[in-house]
């Protein structure tokens, strides 16, 4: 039996395709995402025992050549014809059936989770039904198949609304045409759709390995949130390492009421917010004002590794929260010990501290109630909350170098401080007054 598959698509041109993803994605990113959809669908269609056609929106030869570069030359290409979507789909079927095919399915390009098994299931349904649909979760459909061109399937005045499939099925039933279904899938039309897709990626290996999965992970929006207070000695040098990140992510400084020259030393190109003093309060204020799907909380005395955004996105493909490893420039044995213990603590005890550069899924951050607005231990309590909710932590392969300014000079004083910090955390877990712990912390700084 001669079978055909039609991919019904726009040409992926910036500013023309996937425009509902803007402005969160740039026009070029929208086009790149569409190209990934096409490549993934191409792979799945080529696994099916059917001939393959691409029905596209433009007639210019250069655009057709562009599609051939993406999809391959060994396929049939023809332009869409008709004034509205239903008419264009109907004519696509007419053209393919005129070539002598006995069964044909047409698919859109907004469902990158489509697999060859879904397509073959659609052909199986056509053995007993006149028409087959693949439903989307928003009430539309991504696939329609039939054994002859049926105008009744394309008679709606408008498409793109939530009742498209329901109204189409009603029209077919009134004409005595039988209908069956293949697998229901998600389409990706909006930034929220893309966010949900990334969630599914964390539990589905095949999505991570797809063209769409790799690209979607690589463009996840990140907001860097930096709490500051009287940082004039470090703020200029700190900004130097942020220069290469400008334009690639959102960067927010949150000042807690600095009384030195910190604010006047911040480049006007950065966004500066203001809040009450306290890292918890400052970081929460930054998170509320941010736009990123990943929130990265960074201390002003930290030194970032190369390509930190790529490292964060790599970890967040599999996790909802994580951090970098920590290191110190000091060669002191006990600073090396502190590094080893801190990095091991993340893996063994599932606890990360703020100087390790905590990053977290935006929804998760607000879901767990943000950082507690307490004088100290806000990062420790945040980790304990994540641990209580069984959130698995990821860890970047590269390390953040952080200042050892809170450690005194000399080996024995360093050891005493490490012991006392451990004691303070134990006191916190045992329910000691946070004010008392805060006073003791100030005494040892």
TrEMBL record:
Q: InterPro entries attached here? A: Glyco_trans_2-like, Nucleotide-diphossugar_trans, Trfase_1_rSAM/seldom-assoc, Trfase_2_rSAM/seldom_assoc
Q: Does the keyword field hold Endoplasmic reticulum?
A: no
Give a Pfam family name: Glycos_transf_2
Q: Which GO terms describe its molecular function?
A: transferase activity
Q: Where is the Glycosyltransferase 2-like domain?
A: 223-340
Q: Which UniProt keywords apply?
A: Transferase
The source's superkingdom equals Bacteria
Name of the molecule in the record: Glycosyl transferase
Q: Which organism is it from?
A: Lacrimispora celerecrescens
Organism phylogeny:
Bacteria, Bacillati, Bacillota, Clostridia, Lachnospirales
